[in-house]
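Next comes a single protein record:
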Amino acid sequence: MLCHQSTYRGYIIGVECQGRIGFTTASPKTPDLPIMDCFTSKATAKSETEALAEAKSRVDRVLTAWFAMS
């Protein structure tokens, strides 16, 4: 069940809750952005807010590396 969906720096971030386990997904909205290697992962955070912050941090790391290679 999707708990939360947000847009951040051109990515759609979803937080999905399955019992006590949360999963986050981040997918680009446009084809010019890089696809994240691991687009789904277990959220290590204890709350939806922390899971969303963790996903945003991953997006930042991917974009930083991508722009450095450009």
In short: The longest strand covers residues 11-18. The chain has one domain: 2-69. Helices lie at 48-69.
